[in-house]
């Protein structure tokens, strides 16, 4: 792919990774719609995308640095405030529990899931499914404003299971986990915060597995450098997206996911029509 195409994908990924509209779905569908030179079946395409996700993870660490610092201090027991230590350790356990399902399913179905990344039609179809999921979740969610501190271990595991659906291109990780939180009675802002917190270890884990493949002999020279530059662009975009989304979810509690749901249904359906009949 060209440098312009790589940076375009980086901007799209940085914005759509945190918006509940599926960054992977966009990364697979849009190049096909725009007839770019990007080879989605290339062995370096998925590692390239994961490199962009690394930029997103860094952006999340920077935005939520107070949360992560409090978790670190609490887990290490470096605070004299026993209540703060206990709260931090409990939140750490919740994050671990919410992360386990995606790790297990991701390893078990790695080959099958990898085969889906090169299919724009499959990604477009699941974009429609993602949109319906957001609309469905907003409609049937439990009313209430449970604070994040009341999240139980069972709640964390349920949200973690929802996160597993995002292993399919077209299903949004943030969208699925926010819906999972809403169905457990957590409000939009708290669901989004927990979603973004559990995203970080998942993204970093995928980075450790996939990014070294960009240094493999079979990958074209310069791909790693291009991916690194694109990761910086994705990170900046993701940080700005996080700032916007946290304010957006706080101010639009009653219907926050609906616009994203309609968008995904229209984009997915339009992409299917264009790819099949144009």
Descriptive labels:
278 residues; mainly alpha
Structure description:
There is one protein chain. With 278 residues, the chain is mainly α. It has one domain (3-64, 99-277). 74% of the residues lie in helices and 0% in strands. It is built from twelve helices and no strands. The protein has helices at 3-16, 23-34, 45-63, 65-76, 82-108, 110-115, 120-140, 153-164, 173-183, 188-210, 223-251, 258-277. Helix 1 packs antiparallel against helix 2, helix 5 crosses helix 10 and helix 10 packs antiparallel against helix 11. The longest helix has 29 residues, at 223-251. The protein is globular and about 60 Å long. The model has no long low-confidence stretch (mean pLDDT 86).
Number of strands: 0
| Sheet with the most strands, sense and barrel status | none
Cα distance spanning the termini = 24 Å
Approximate helicity band: over 70%
Sheet-strand content, in percent, reads: under 5%
Total count of helical runs of at least 4 residues: 12
Query: Cα-atom Rg, whole angstroms?
Result: 18 Å
- Element pattern in H and E: HHHHHHHHHHHH
Overall pLDDT: 86
Rough outline: globular
Which structural class do the helices and strands define? mainly alpha
A few lines on this structure:
The chain has 278 residues and is mainly alpha-helical. 74% of the residues lie in helices and 0% in strands.
Helix-strand layout with pairing:
Layout: H1 3-16, H2 23-34, H3 45-63, H4 65-76, H5 82-108, H6 110-115, H7 120-140, H8 153-164, H9 173-183, H10 188-210, H11 223-251, H12 258-277
């Amino acid at each position: 792919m060209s440098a312009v195409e790589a940076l375009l994908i980086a901007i799209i990924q940085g914005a759509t990774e945190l918006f509940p509209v599926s960054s992977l779905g966009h990364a697979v569908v849009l190049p096909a719609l725009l007839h770019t030179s990007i080879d989605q079946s290339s062995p370096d395409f998925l590692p390239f995308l994961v490199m962009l996700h690394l930029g997103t993870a860094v952006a999340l660490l920077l935005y939520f640095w107070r949360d992560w610092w409090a978790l670190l201090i609490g887990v290490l027991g470096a605070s004299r405030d026993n209540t703060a230590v206990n709260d931090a350790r409990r939140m750490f356990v919740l994050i671990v529990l919410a992360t386990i399902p995606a790790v297990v399913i991701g390893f078990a179905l790695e080959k099958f899931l990898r085969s889906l990344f090169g299919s724009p039609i499959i990604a477009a179809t699941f974009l429609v499914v993602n949109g319906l999921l957001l609309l469905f979740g907003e409609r049937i969610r439990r009313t209430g404003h449970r604070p994040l501190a009341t999240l139980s271990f069972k709640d964390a595991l349920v949200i973690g299971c929802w996160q597993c659906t995002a292993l399919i291109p077209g299903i949004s990780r943030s969208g699925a986990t926010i819906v999972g939180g809403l169905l457990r009675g957590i409000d939009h802002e708290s669901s989004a915060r927990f979603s973004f917190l559990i995203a970080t270890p998942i993204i970093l884990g995928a980075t450790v597995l996939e990014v070294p493949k960009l240094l493999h002999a079979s990958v074209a020279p310069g791909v790693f450098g291009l991916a690194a530059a694109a990761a910086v662009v994705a990170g900046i975009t993701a940080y700005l997206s996080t700032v916007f989304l946290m304010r957006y979810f706080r101010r639009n509690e009653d219907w926050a996911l609906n616009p994203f749901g309609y968008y995904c249904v229209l984009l997915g359906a339009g992409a299917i029509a264009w790819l099949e009949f144009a």
